[in-house]
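Researcher: Structure for this, please.
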Amino acid sequence: MSVITKKTLVVGQPGTKKWLQKYGDALTCVRYKYDSEKKRKIKTVELVVEDEPWEIDHNRIPANKLIGLRVKYGEVHIGRLIKAAGGKWNPNIKLWELPYKEAVDLGLENRIVTTK
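Model: Predicted structure, token format:
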């Protein structure tokens, strides 16, 4: 389907008054879309359906963040595991680097080294 959004109106702009009366504070925007195949103009509204308190978890580590892993000399099998999971050796910091999620999946959380 070839539907293109041509215009997005935020609450308060001309063209939103009717929808604001219908949906009240739940309305966030009105969109005008055009379907060139069916030759149709489509008007959609975006509504807030849930609003609850939320705070950023500053301790959460993003799954894709590269973290450093300490592997002792002679632990070849651990190095091979990390390499097989896509890890790379970083000679500058003398640590293996791997995305956090992969390290957790391999059970290597106790080897994570914070670098700064």
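Researcher: Any notable elements?
Model: The CA atoms of residues 33 and 97 lie 45 Å apart. The chain has three helices and seven strands.
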